[in-house]
Amino acid sequence: MTNHPQPNPTALYTAGSRHALVFAAMLVAAVLSGCATQREPHVTRTHIPAPVSSPDENENEDGSEDTTAESHPSIYERGNASYYAASFNGQTTASGEPYDPHALTAAHRTLPLGSRVRVVNLENDKHVTVRINDRGPFVDGRVIDLSKAAAKKLDMRHDGVVPVTLQIVSKPK
């Protein structure tokens, strides 16, 4: 039986292989830094007081207060909108109903479920009114997650994420 000398572990890293290792590490760092995304803008929530009006100007026919956007045309929030991925189709939302990509619905972190919100795409001024039926999005800078149908109305499906303003149209009674 012949004794084979054990390899020296430090001999595996010659000067040439060390240079190759350093070069590979620098290459990986350069590639990863090129993939870094720009930080999304900060979410801005404003509470602008409703315009002063006569007592009966903001009432419905039944005497209840009118909470439509026409009587309170203020911007509630600014930030980015995204839309649900196809993998969410049929999954249960926070309201208990299944997610329907063809319905004009959305997710918001804090607005009451059932609220109706006008969303304006600031890149093209297109708008849509959606009903809040879920919670989210949970990504910094994003203020609303829209259904596929709502994203289509805003012409944002190609972009994926667009700057928007939100205006409360109504809250559930």
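Above is the first protein from milestone M3; the second protein from the same milestone is given next.
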Amino acid sequence: MTFCCYSLGCKANQAENDSIAELLVSRGHTRAVWSEAVTPGREAPGAVIINTCAVTGEASRKTRGAIRRARRMFPDAVLAVYGCFAEGGEGTHPMELADVTGGTAGRAAFALRVEAKWIEKSAGKPAGKPAAMPRA
């Protein structure tokens, strides 16, 4: 899977995205640079991971816009949204656009859920169900 990450808010959010990216890369996936992924004519990523922020009203507004924009730009990608905005609160309706959500804890488990959802979407069957073995 090719994936890209986008962070809103503090530098800690960027570091968290880097940690998730390292885990996914160690599992054989490829990280695309966000600015290249959104360039017209480029192959769309299989997953878009957004680390959100809700510290201020402006941060929440930017987060809602980023979620909507990512879904619009990459309709077939797994849209994975986590962070403080994703934990809930007023005006979080764009979260309904996400395929995978997570809060501020459990980054490794979140990354594995993103991977599982990508496998599910790309295979066209629910995650966790192995492909049937052909009969001899």
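Note on the second protein: The CA atoms of residues 18 and 44 lie 20 Å apart.
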